[in-house]
Protein backbone atom coordinates (compact mmCIF):
# COMPACT_ATOMS: atom_id res chain seq x y z
CA UNK A 1 0.00 0.00 0.00
CA UNK A 2 1.28 3.44 -0.92
CA UNK A 3 0.74 5.69 2.13
CA UNK A 4 -1.77 8.48 1.56
CA UNK A 5 -0.72 10.40 4.69
CA UNK A 6 2.46 10.84 6.69
CA UNK A 7 0.48 10.09 9.87
CA UNK A 8 -2.63 8.24 11.02
CA UNK A 9 -3.91 8.67 14.58
CA UNK A 10 -5.59 5.46 15.73
CA UNK A 11 -7.90 5.58 18.74
CA UNK A 12 -9.61 2.38 20.01
CA UNK A 13 -12.75 3.06 22.07
CA UNK A 14 -15.39 1.19 24.00
CA UNK A 15 -18.24 3.11 25.67
CA UNK A 16 -16.45 6.47 25.56
CA UNK A 17 -19.26 8.70 24.26
CA UNK A 18 -18.45 11.47 26.74
CA UNK A 19 -14.78 11.61 25.74
CA UNK A 20 -15.08 11.49 21.95
CA UNK A 21 -15.72 15.14 21.06
CA UNK A 22 -13.09 16.72 23.35
CA UNK A 23 -10.37 14.31 22.22
CA UNK A 24 -11.09 14.59 18.48
CA UNK A 25 -11.00 18.38 18.74
CA UNK A 26 -7.71 18.25 20.64
CA UNK A 27 -6.15 15.96 18.02
CA UNK A 28 -7.21 18.29 15.23
CA UNK A 29 -5.91 21.34 17.09
CA UNK A 30 -2.58 19.64 17.81
CA UNK A 31 -1.92 18.44 14.25
CA UNK A 32 -3.49 20.84 11.75
CA UNK A 33 -0.68 22.85 10.24
CA UNK A 34 1.93 20.42 11.60
CA UNK A 35 1.48 17.48 9.22
CA UNK A 36 -1.10 15.88 6.94
CA UNK A 37 -3.03 13.31 8.93
CA UNK A 38 -6.15 11.26 9.36
CA UNK A 39 -7.89 10.09 12.54
CA UNK A 40 -9.12 6.49 12.66
CA UNK A 41 -11.46 5.71 15.53
CA UNK A 42 -12.17 2.03 16.09
CA UNK A 43 -15.35 1.41 18.08
CA UNK A 44 -15.19 -1.94 19.84
CA UNK A 45 -18.96 -2.56 19.63
CA UNK A 46 -19.88 0.07 22.22
CA UNK A 47 -23.23 -0.12 23.95
CA UNK A 48 -23.56 3.63 24.45
CA UNK A 49 -23.69 6.54 21.97
CA UNK A 50 -20.00 6.48 21.04
CA UNK A 51 -20.64 5.91 17.32
CA UNK A 52 -23.35 8.59 17.17
CA UNK A 53 -21.01 11.05 18.88
CA UNK A 54 -18.29 10.26 16.35
CA UNK A 55 -20.61 10.62 13.38
CA UNK A 56 -21.72 14.03 14.64
CA UNK A 57 -18.09 15.22 14.49
CA UNK A 58 -17.45 14.41 10.83
CA UNK A 59 -18.61 17.81 9.57
CA UNK A 60 -16.10 19.72 11.69
CA UNK A 61 -13.35 17.09 11.46
CA UNK A 62 -13.16 15.75 7.87
CA UNK A 63 -9.95 13.94 8.87
CA UNK A 64 -12.08 11.56 10.96
CA UNK A 65 -12.85 7.99 9.87
CA UNK A 66 -14.86 5.46 11.88
CA UNK A 67 -14.33 1.70 11.92
CA UNK A 68 -16.79 -0.34 13.97
CA UNK A 69 -16.36 -3.86 15.31
CA UNK A 70 -19.42 -6.06 14.94
CA UNK A 71 -18.46 -7.88 18.15
CA UNK A 72 -16.51 -6.79 21.21
CA UNK A 73 -12.91 -7.93 20.66
CA UNK A 74 -10.63 -5.96 22.99
CA UNK A 75 -8.10 -3.14 22.71
CA UNK A 76 -5.34 -5.03 20.90
CA UNK A 77 -7.68 -6.18 18.14
CA UNK A 78 -9.17 -2.69 17.85
CA UNK A 79 -5.71 -1.17 17.60
CA UNK A 80 -4.58 -3.67 14.97
CA UNK A 81 -7.73 -3.23 12.88
CA UNK A 82 -7.26 0.52 13.10
CA UNK A 83 -3.67 0.22 11.89
CA UNK A 84 -4.76 -2.08 9.05
CA UNK A 85 -7.41 0.43 7.99
CA UNK A 86 -5.03 3.38 8.34
CA UNK A 87 -3.49 5.01 5.28
CA UNK A 88 -0.54 6.64 7.03
CA UNK A 89 3.10 5.58 6.89
CA UNK A 90 3.39 6.17 10.64
CA UNK A 91 0.81 5.54 13.34
CA UNK A 92 0.18 7.46 16.54
CA UNK A 93 -2.07 5.72 19.06
CA UNK A 94 -4.07 7.29 21.89
CA UNK A 95 -6.33 5.80 24.52
CA UNK A 96 -9.92 6.92 24.04
CA UNK A 97 -10.43 8.04 27.66
CA UNK A 98 -8.69 11.38 27.16
CA UNK A 99 -5.84 10.67 29.59
CA UNK A 100 -3.22 10.90 26.82
CA UNK A 101 -2.46 14.42 25.62
CA UNK A 102 -2.56 14.88 21.81
CA UNK A 103 -0.13 17.80 22.08
CA UNK A 104 2.54 15.16 22.78
CA UNK A 105 2.19 13.76 19.23
CA UNK A 106 4.26 16.57 17.63
CA UNK A 107 6.92 15.90 20.29
CA UNK A 108 7.06 12.24 19.27
CA UNK A 109 7.25 13.23 15.59
CA UNK A 110 10.16 15.57 16.32
CA UNK A 111 11.93 12.82 18.25
CA UNK A 112 11.45 10.46 15.29
CA UNK A 113 12.90 13.00 12.88
CA UNK A 114 16.02 13.28 15.05
CA UNK A 115 16.49 9.52 15.50
CA UNK A 116 18.22 6.83 13.42
CA UNK A 117 16.08 4.99 10.86
CA UNK A 118 16.19 1.74 12.83
CA UNK A 119 14.14 3.27 15.68
CA UNK A 120 10.63 2.18 14.79
CA UNK A 121 8.75 2.82 18.07
CA UNK A 122 8.55 5.89 20.28
CA UNK A 123 6.69 4.90 23.43
CA UNK A 124 5.08 7.38 25.80
CA UNK A 125 6.32 7.33 29.39
CA UNK A 126 3.89 8.66 32.01
CA UNK A 127 6.32 10.15 34.50
CA UNK A 128 3.52 11.75 36.55
CA UNK A 129 0.49 9.48 36.36
CA UNK A 130 -2.97 10.79 37.23
CA UNK A 131 -4.46 7.41 38.21
CA UNK A 132 -5.51 6.04 41.58
CA UNK A 133 -2.81 4.98 44.02
CA UNK A 134 -3.71 1.29 43.68
CA UNK A 135 -3.46 1.43 39.89
CA UNK A 136 -0.10 3.21 40.05
CA UNK A 137 1.32 0.62 42.46
CA UNK A 138 -0.04 -2.28 40.40
CA UNK A 139 1.55 -0.83 37.25
CA UNK A 140 4.84 -0.22 39.04
CA UNK A 141 5.03 -3.85 40.15
CA UNK A 142 3.94 -5.16 36.74
CA UNK A 143 6.49 -2.99 34.92
CA UNK A 144 9.27 -4.21 37.22
CA UNK A 145 8.40 -7.87 36.61
CA UNK A 146 8.05 -7.34 32.86
CA UNK A 147 11.33 -5.46 32.62
CA UNK A 148 13.14 -8.21 34.53
CA UNK A 149 11.74 -10.98 32.32
CA UNK A 150 11.82 -9.31 28.91
CA UNK A 151 14.72 -6.87 29.35
CA UNK A 152 13.01 -4.40 27.04
CA UNK A 153 14.51 -1.30 28.72
CA UNK A 154 11.08 0.33 28.79
CA UNK A 155 9.81 1.97 32.01
CA UNK A 156 6.14 2.17 30.96
CA UNK A 157 4.61 -0.15 28.35
CA UNK A 158 1.03 0.57 29.42
CA UNK A 159 0.97 4.15 28.15
CA UNK A 160 -1.51 4.47 25.30
CA UNK A 161 0.31 7.17 23.36
CA UNK A 162 2.86 5.67 20.98
CA UNK A 163 4.31 6.43 17.57
CA UNK A 164 5.43 3.60 15.31
CA UNK A 165 5.94 2.68 11.69
CA UNK A 166 2.85 1.02 10.25
CA UNK A 167 4.76 -1.57 8.22
CA UNK A 168 6.91 -2.61 11.19
CA UNK A 169 3.84 -3.00 13.43
CA UNK A 170 1.93 -5.17 10.97
CA UNK A 171 4.95 -7.47 10.71
CA UNK A 172 4.75 -8.29 14.45
CA UNK A 173 3.08 -11.48 15.75
CA UNK A 174 -0.53 -10.72 16.66
CA UNK A 175 -2.23 -11.92 19.86
CA UNK A 176 -4.73 -10.53 22.34
CA UNK A 177 -3.14 -7.94 24.70
CA UNK A 178 -0.15 -7.51 22.39
CA UNK A 179 -0.46 -3.73 22.74
CA UNK A 180 1.09 -4.01 26.20
CA UNK A 181 4.29 -5.55 24.81
CA UNK A 182 5.08 -3.47 21.74
CA UNK A 183 8.61 -2.43 22.81
CA UNK A 184 9.67 -6.05 23.43
CA UNK A 185 8.02 -7.22 20.19
CA UNK A 186 9.66 -4.45 18.15
CA UNK A 187 13.04 -5.28 19.66
CA UNK A 188 12.46 -8.97 18.93
CA UNK A 189 11.96 -7.98 15.28
CA UNK A 190 15.34 -6.27 15.24
CA UNK A 191 14.21 -2.67 15.67
CA UNK A 192 15.14 -0.13 18.33
CA UNK A 193 12.66 1.63 20.63
CA UNK A 194 12.78 4.87 22.61
CA UNK A 195 10.74 5.94 25.66
CA UNK A 196 9.64 9.58 25.67
CA UNK A 197 8.24 11.40 28.76
CA UNK A 198 4.68 12.55 28.06
CA UNK A 199 1.83 14.28 29.84
CA UNK A 200 -0.87 12.26 31.62
CA UNK A 201 -4.30 13.54 32.63
CA UNK A 202 -7.26 12.42 34.74
CA UNK A 203 -10.04 10.60 32.87
CA UNK A 204 -12.51 13.11 31.47
CA UNK A 205 -15.71 11.04 31.61
CA UNK A 206 -16.88 7.45 31.97
CA UNK A 207 -15.15 4.64 33.86
CA UNK A 208 -12.08 2.46 33.32
CA UNK A 209 -12.67 -0.85 31.53
CA UNK A 210 -9.92 -2.63 33.51
CA UNK A 211 -9.19 -3.55 37.10
CA UNK A 212 -5.96 -4.61 38.78
CA UNK A 213 -6.99 -8.26 39.21
CA UNK A 214 -7.94 -9.00 35.60
CA UNK A 215 -4.83 -7.21 34.35
CA UNK A 216 -2.65 -9.33 36.64
CA UNK A 217 -4.26 -12.64 35.66
CA UNK A 218 -3.94 -12.17 31.90
CA UNK A 219 -0.59 -10.42 32.33
CA UNK A 220 1.11 -13.46 33.83
CA UNK A 221 0.07 -15.68 30.93
CA UNK A 222 0.93 -13.08 28.30
CA UNK A 223 4.31 -12.35 29.86
CA UNK A 224 5.30 -16.00 29.71
CA UNK A 225 4.17 -16.16 26.09
CA UNK A 226 6.15 -13.09 25.02
CA UNK A 227 9.23 -14.39 26.85
CA UNK A 228 8.87 -17.66 24.91
CA UNK A 229 8.55 -15.76 21.62
CA UNK A 230 11.76 -13.88 22.33
CA UNK A 231 13.70 -17.09 23.02
CA UNK A 232 12.44 -18.60 19.75
CA UNK A 233 13.24 -15.62 17.53
CA UNK A 234 15.96 -15.67 14.89
CA UNK A 235 17.04 -12.65 12.86
CA UNK A 236 18.87 -13.30 9.59
CA UNK A 237 20.28 -10.63 7.33
CA UNK A 238 19.74 -11.16 3.63
CA UNK A 239 21.09 -9.84 0.38
CA UNK A 240 19.84 -10.06 -3.19
CA UNK A 241 22.38 -11.74 -5.54
Automatic annotation (TrEMBL):
Q: Would I find Transmembrane among this entry's keywords?
A: yes
Lineage, top ranks? Bacteria, Pseudomonadati, Pseudomonadota, Gammaproteobacteria, Lysobacterales
Record protein name field: Dolichol-phosphate mannosyltransferase
- What keywords tag this UniProt record? Cell membrane, Glycosyltransferase, Lipopolysaccharide biosynthesis, Membrane, Transferase, Transmembrane, Transmembrane helix
Domain Glycosyltransferase 2-like per the UniProt entry, residue ranges = 8-169
Q: Among its keywords, does the record have Transferase?
A: yes
User: Which Gene3D superfamilies has this protein been placed in?
Assistant: Spore Coat Polysaccharide Biosynthesis Protein SpsA, Chain A
Q: Which residues form a coiled coil?
A: none
InterPro entries, per the entry: Glyco_trans_2-like (IPR001173), Glycosyltransferase_2 (IPR050256), Nucleotide-diphossugar_trans (IPR029044)
* GO MF, one example: glycosyltransferase activity
Q: Which gene is this protein's source?
A: dpm1
The organism's superkingdom is given as Bacteria
